[in-house]
Amino acid sequence: MRSMIQRPRGTRDFGPADMFRRRKAERAMRDICHRYGFGEVVTPTFEQSELFTLRSGQSIVDEMYVFKDKGDREIALRPEITASVIRLFVNEMSNQPKPLKLYYVGNCFRYENPQSGRYREFFQLGAELIGNENPETDAEVISLAVNCIRAAGLQDFQVRVGHIGVMKSLALSGVQDPALAGRALRMIDKKDFDAMGDMFDANSLSRNLFDRITALAETRGGTEVLDDVEDVKAQQHLKELFEILKLQGVEDVEIDLGIVRGLDYYTGMVFEIDAPRLGAEKQILGGGSYTLSELFGGEAVFSTGFAIGIDRVMLALDAEQEAPEYAPLDAYVVPTEDAMRKYAFAIVSKMRSKGLRADVDLMRRSMSKNLKYAASVGVRYAVIVGKEEMSKRSVTLRDMKTGEQKQVPADFVAEELENSLGKGAP
RNA sequence: GCCGGGGUGGGGUAAUGGUAUCCUUGGGGAUUGUGGAUCCCUUGAACCGGGUUCGAUUCCCGGUCCCGGCCCCA
User: Which ipTM did the prediction report?
Assistant: First the structure.
């Protein structure tokens, strides 16, 4: 029977096995955030749509879920969370001591065409460091980002760091019309140099400038490529940044001055992380430094942040490794006959109170069926309670992997199991 | 928004212009205190709408959803 109500396009359901994997990765990344001194914040899933339209380009606005609520307010489901965090900062945290380190995990919504690694509801973990624009700040954020990805278990990924000021100042130096310069930046982002060449010719812009821009956009490599950069401030910034990163054990980071990032609000350092084996949607993280707060009515405060696409991280993990085994139960209590069923609850309750993941037959199944069930669900130990055991105030522990059995006193089942399971239940 | 490929029980499949095969899974039973075995019973399917036709799961059109790609991003 097919249910009449379908899941909305571009959304997903996650079953227990999925969530086991997701939470594991998420927990690992949260743990890193806390170790870096970032505190968690939660902001509303929906906001006044203006919060997002203020700063984002038309492209984001076009794909937002927007609606009027019953009070005729224009509301949008958040397409990302940075704007909300900065709003929160401006509204209620602007007097807190700097630097302010905040992180978040949440779902975001974009009305896009779904494909591999792209959904209409997707999940991000992100962090914002609000305070200054020093290289230390940028390094801290990049280091956090890289360690989150590592902690999630991903091995094959590429970190690329650039500086948007370099390209922006170069483009603006030769292109007076800001709209035109913006178009040029967008073409640089797409690496569509043919179109940019046509545009330059059409507006009779310098061919020399074009060459310098394309060269810059292709500039990738180690810190030595910075020597040719004319923007001394940016050059210094990135050099210091890389020194600090190295001291934090973050190496294998590439300079990529071609990173422009579509969003206009980035002002300085920008960075991206790719998982190469993902194909079309391989970018798993994007970030950089910006000054958003003034846009929302606060003072201009420098921040650096990033957002990780959790769904893409999970896809990348899938591509890299076998899914970890999902074993939902440590123990399953099997009564041998109906007379034992109630007593079985006392046993399972004792184990649960000790922190073990334990279950008991609710289906009134035969013993044989119960053991079959326990095996198919992946239980570690069957706890068999029957007449014989009860007369001795004991139960039989059966290791479902090896088939070994032993009788233990009923009062010590939990302790015995804890020992057998080693390091206790996760 | 655009382009390509798809849509048969929960999952995987077969055939077919005359309402559907097989496997698996789920539930029950047998073996009457030890398991993934065997046997038996049982639940359960053609994405939606329109058209062609005596008749459509099958052919045609539209929509929808899934998979992938462009664009953009996470």
Answer: 0.84
